[in-house]
Amino acid sequence: MLSQHFTPAHWWIAACLSGLALAAAVASLPSQPRSRLIAGATVVLVTAFYCVARGRGEGTEQALQLYILGTLPLAILRWVFGGWLRRQSELARAGQPPQEVKGRHTALFMGAFVAVVAAIAVLL
């Protein structure tokens, strides 16, 4: 565990960075600038709401750890599968139908998701 020495302030910083990473990942998905802004702002607002709702008190560190464990893998997987998502966007812009998502694609994504979550959980 790399985070044994973390104080509550460290957890807040890590949660904010994780939320911003997810906001950047989500904002990169839409093709229209307005949609990108809305997507990124939505994640930032949800992050702010979560942080305000949890406040400070008993269980805050665990809540922040769970938040990080939920957001960081999605941001990492957006980077890992960026090439595939880019190809799908290019097909859509060219007016062609997107590639069909097959069982192996789903299995690959789920396996990668479990691996990333497990790795982050071990590091937390």
UniProtKB/TrEMBL annotation:
Keywords: Membrane, Transmembrane, Transmembrane helix. It comes from the Bacteria. The chain crosses the membrane at residues 12-30, 37-55, 67-85, 106-123. This is Integral membrane protein.
